Amino acid sequence: MKYDFDRIVDRTGTESMKWAHPRRDLGVADAIPMWVADMDFEAPPAVVEALRRRAEHGVFGYPLVPPSFFEAAAGWLGRRHGWTVEPSWLSMTPGIVPALNYIVRAFTRPGDPVIVQTPVYHPFFYAIENNGRRVVRNPLRFDGRRYTMDLDDLRTRIDAPGRMLILCSPHNPVGRVWTRAELEALARIAVERDLLVVSDEIHHDLTYRGHRHQVFAALAPELAQQTITCIAPSKTFNTAGLSTAAVVVPNPDLHKKFEDEAERSGFDLGNALGIVAFEAAYRHGDDWLDALLPYLEANIDILERFLADRLPEIKLIRPEGTYLALLDCRGLGIEPGALNDFFLKKAGVYFSDGKIFGDEAAGFVRINFGCPRSVLLEALERVERAVKAR
Ligand SMILES: Cc1ncc(COP(=O)(O)O)c(C=O)c1O
Questions:
Q1: Are 352 and 317 in contact (CB under 8 A)?
Q2: CA-to-CA distance for 370 and 338, rounded, in angstroms?
Q3: What atom of ligand 1 comes closest to residue 95's alpha carbon?
Q4: Which atom of ligand 1 is nearest to the CA of 97?
Q5: CATH number of the CATH domain containing 300
Q6: How far away, in angstroms, is 232 Cα from ligand 1 center?
Q7: Among 67, 122, 142, 256, which is 20 to 30 Å from 28 by CA?
Q8: In a domain, 165, yes or no
Q9: Distance 88 CA to ligand 1 centre (A)
Q10: Best of 38, 97, 243 to mutate for ligand 1, by most ligand atoms within 8 A of CB?
Q11: Which domain, by its residues, includes 153?
C-alpha cells in the first residue's frame, strides 16, 4: 500500500490536545481519544517533506504570503470542486474559527441575531456570543436516521437587521453532505431575504460514495456576492496545528470589510510553516486524499456493522462526509448528563458529548473515526465491555 493508514503513530509527548486532554487533564491514563477533530494519521508525504525543507532552512522570521499560496487554493477549488475563483478573492486567516469571529464583528452589530442550524459545531455559538451577538437557532429536522434542513422554520427566523447565517457544509456533527437541491432551496431564501451566508466548508473534501459536495457560492453568481466561503486543508490533510486557513470573498466590498476587521483584530501575518503546508497540500495532496477516503469509509462500515451486531442499543447516524459521526445512545438508558463520563470512566474512550452541539443532541456522542482501524476496533470493544457490564 502506498500510504499506510493502519500504521499507529504514537502521538504521546507531542502535546496533542486530542491525546493529552483525556489522559492528563481528565486523568484516564490509557483513554482512547475519539473527540476533537484531527486524525491520527501522518500528513501526506509531500506536506511533511515541504515542512522538512522549510524547517532545515532554520530562519523563521515574518513571512509574506506568496501569490502561489492563493493560486494553489484556487487550483484545488477548480480541480476538486469545479469552482472557478480568482486568487484575489482569497484571504489567508489563522483558522476558520478566528475568521468566523472577524466576520461576525465585521458584518453585524452588537445585539444582532446570527442564525445557526443546530446541533452544530459549537465554536459557531462562541463566535456569536463572545462578540455580544445573539444566537438564533434553526434546528435541523431529524427523522431518527437522517437530518435535513427546516427551511420553513428558517424563514421565520430571518430578522432585520444583520441577516447572517453560518452554514456548516458538509455538516459537523450530523455528517450531512447537503445536496445541490437542498442548497438551491436555501439559496433562494438567501437571495430573496438578502441573507449573508457564511459557508464553513472546511470538511468539503471529506465525502463518501454517492455524495458530492456542492460549493454553496458556486450555485449562482449573485449568490456568490453575498456569501463568504471558509476553506482549509487542515481537516483534509491533518494539519490543524499549523493554523492556516482561507476565506473566499468574491464581493469586493465584503472582502475589504473582512480584511479591515482581520487587521483591527491584529492579524495580518501568517505562520511561516502553515503557509508552506497549505500550499504543498493543495498542490500535491490529491493522490493521498484519494487513498484516505476509502479507508475512512471502510471505518464507517466497520463501525456500523459492529454496532448493529454487538451494540444495537447505540445507533450510528451514518455520515455522508467528515470523519465524525453522531452515535444515538438514548437506547442505553443513561442520563444524558452522565453519558460521556460513562464512556470515559467505564470504557476508557473519550468522545465529544452531543450536548455541546446543542440540546438537540443530548443523549448522543460524536465519534471521531479518523484513526487506524485497530484503534477504532479496540475502542468499540471497550465500549461493548462497559455497556455489557452495566
Ligand atoms: C465546521 C468546522 N469549522 C471549523 C473548524 C476548525 O477550524 P480552524 O481549526 O481552522 O479554526 C472545525 C474543526 O473541527 C469544524 O468542524
A1: no
A2: 25
A3: 10
A4: 11
A5: 3.90.1150.10
A6: 9
A7: 122
A8: yes
A9: 23
A10: 97
A11: 48-284
In terms of Cα–Cα distance, which of 385, 386, 304, 326 is closest to 118?
Answer: 326
Total tally of structural domains belonging to the chain: 2
97 lines ligand 1 (CB under 6 A): yes
Confidence at residue 281, expressed as pLDDT on a 0 to 100 scale: 98
Ligand 1 centroid–CA 18 distance in Å is 14
DSSP letter string, 305-371 = HHHHHH-TTSEE---SBSSEEEEE-GGG---HHHHHHHIIIII-EE-EEGGGG-GGGTTEEEEE--S
Q: Are residues 77 and 226 in the same domain?
A: yes
- The predicted pLDDT at position 267 comes to 86
Ligand 1: centre distance to CA 143 (Å): 26
Alpha carbons 355 and 362: distance in angstroms, whole number: 5
Output the CA 17–ligand 1 centroid distance in Å: 14
Mean pLDDT (whole number) for 13-26: 96
Confidence of residue 349 (pLDDT cuts 50, 70, 90): very high
Cα 81 to averaged position of ligand 1 atoms, centre (Å): 19
Which tens digit of pLDDT belongs to each residue from 193-212?
Answer: 999 999 999 999 999 999 99
Q: Is the CB of 372 under 6 A from ligand 1?
A: no
| Prediction pTM value | 0.98
Pull the grid cell for residue 296: 475512512
- pLDDT tens digits for range 89-130: 999 999 999 999 999 999 999 999 999 999 999 999 999 999
pLDDT-based confidence at 37, cuts 50/70/90?
Answer: very high
Residue 268 pLDDT:
75
Asked if residue 332 has pLDDT above 90, the reply is yes
Question: Ligand 1 within 6 A of 168 CB?
Answer: yes
Could you tell me if residue 277 is inside a domain? Answer: yes
Residue 99 inside a domain? The answer is yes
Instruction: Please give the helix or strand (H or E) that residue 113 lies within, else none.
Output: strand 113-116
Q: 152 CA distance to ligand 1 centroid (A)?
A: 28
99 lines ligand 1 (CB under 6 A): no
Residue with CA closest to ligand 1 atom 4: 96
Apex CA 79: angle with CA 75 and CA 80, to 5°? Answer: 115
- The residues with which 368 forms a beta bridge, in sequence order, are 324
